[in-house]
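Handout, tutorial session.
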Amino acid sequence: MKKLLVVFVALGFAASFIALLSVRSRTRNPSQAEDFAHLQHRDVPAALWASPEFSFKANTGEVVSKQSLTGRPYIANFIFTTCRTVCPLMTAKMVRVQRELKDAPMRFVSFSVDPATDTAEVLAKYAEQWNPGEKRWVLLETTPPGLAAVVSGFHVTVQKTDAGVDPIMHSSVMLLVDERGVVRGIYDSEDPADFRALIAASRVLLGSTAPSPAKEARSGEVLFHEFSCSNCHAHPELAPPLGGLVGRKRTLENGLVATADLTYIKESLVAPDAKRVQGYPLRMPTYYELATPAELDALAAYVAALPEEAPEADAVVAVDPVCHMKVRVSDTALHLSADGGTTYFCSAWCKQRFAENPDAYRK
């Protein structure tokens, strides 16, 4: 009887211990920001932790600190300008967030993880390349000790490495910080569902629970610029050129050769890893859930119709100040004339953007 009682007591203690471990495991906070990006997001984001203290010079010349950002929510990420892998995709997503939250009273903050290279002046050129005229976006020149404190306080990862294409490995998440400086959400920049959750959560913090307004169907030209396609494909060190693509043969990572046509372009938009072109480190994101099927068809058609980018030797070439694509100067090229000079554009979209705020695109 005593043995039986001891067994029951032991079993009861074990059950209680297991239950305690279970409760602790369910309530234990993840140790890194990346852990939160894969949890289910609440409609009203819960407070996670206070953001760290910081004070850095920005691309605008101003000093930006935790205190100066107090009063308005902001979205933050970590990048460096010479990155050839994840940073261009993260920056493209940051620009898309800015456009989705157009005119919203909030800020967007990009911390450089490369203090040795990314001065305020370098960051200013980077911002001009990606989204000139966006006054809510600040890119911060960090210092080694300041960066270490920010990385620790935001619970993100930044690590120098001798392996791979880029010398710095870092977190690819976006952090949503409220007007008090409290982190309210962590979002995977490569996950379309997280992108939508970030937009929704930002609206909640701004006091708007109304759903995003319905959008009219976007043209291929509009999508091409909304997705910042030229910011990567205009740089041969990042991505293959798109002009005159149809009919070209592409050597893929697996050694096979594919001939580019409309079907190939559509597949690249929804399943970009299926036929990755050999020799490019940058991974293209999927746009499967970011546009309707009809919009993706329109974007594929627009890309297929892009002209050959390499001009004839005797052709005069100008650079579109909005997207930085090369434009062949001709009587039929889109252009604006003012102050004794003429500016050329690759598309009506770029021409309109320039006309709305020409000073933002002038060097």
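The second record follows below. Compare its token runs with those of the first.
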Amino acid sequence: MSSGSVPVIGLIGGSGTVGRTAALRISAAGLGSLRIGGRNLDAAMDVAEECVGPAETVRLNLTDGGDLEEFCSGCSVVVNCAGPSYLVLDSVAQAAFSVSADYVDVGGDLPAADALRAAAIFPERTAIFSAGAMPGLSGLLPRLITAGRPLRRLETYVGGVARFTPLSAADGLLTRGDRFGEAMASMQDAAIVSNSVAPLRDVQLPGFPMPVQAWPYLTTEAQSLGHLPGIAEVRAYNVFASDRLTRVMTHAWAQLSDSPDHDELAPFIPSIVDATVADEDEFGSFYVMLFTGRPARGYDRGITRVVLRAEDSYGLSGSMVALATERIVRGEVSSGVHLAAEAIDPIDAVHWLRADPLVHELVVQ
């Protein structure tokens, strides 16, 4: 990270649910002076007033290259909580790098990280993508279980009930294809095995407050866990309270092109938001991450279960973004392009999250 007496941290999308939490956590940690940018200046000013440290606000159009370069200039780190992240890709990261700033993105995943790696610019700079709840924590916390001995199987269950924003609905529609994962697949001996896992219906899982629907989806993040030494099998599930959301998402995907733009996505977004509202009205709001491991025979039991419970994924993502920013500001992440699950120590994440009031419970056993 660039040296300086008081780092300036630029936060794009700071007035959203994720960005607001990130702003408050970054400010409370004393990481530097905040520059909060977004289209809605009044909302950004409200967030700035909540911060305990210095914070300024700037009107920003993310699609305007001149606006973006001016916003990033003078920053030590630029943090992006705006999107849709899979349309933004590495454009904000490139703008940050061009003015000698490091970069943190709540989303992006492999498409954005690979695009920035391919650009091969400013190798001395640092970028962390997928610094949210999922992807991010969903690939980081399982590493508490994978460390130290081989596993016969690692299972991940992530989800719950939360009202989608239009932005999160758009992001959800864009996360399909080989660069994101494969439904009904597992990872066995470091190879993807298609159609090898069935959905779990009305299953009671540890940490979840009610029986849920668990749909197998082997994300690229889960696939990376399957490449860790000694992991024989990985199964990954997205968890829902009902089948409302999966029905409307499947309907939308059947009609969308392979690379939809915002105009093509727009007609499908209201039904997705409505499905999550209906779930919240019926079941309330909750968000749970459950990770379990079965050690190989003859090895110590070690850590076999991690359970995290939170109100929703948005605040959790904001806290994770702040942690990734803190790691860069403190000089704990090497130069280059990283995914958060591979760049942050999971034990550091546990300490950070247990101190966050948005996390209701974090059990490691």
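Points raised in discussion: Residues 313-329 form the longest helix (17 residues).
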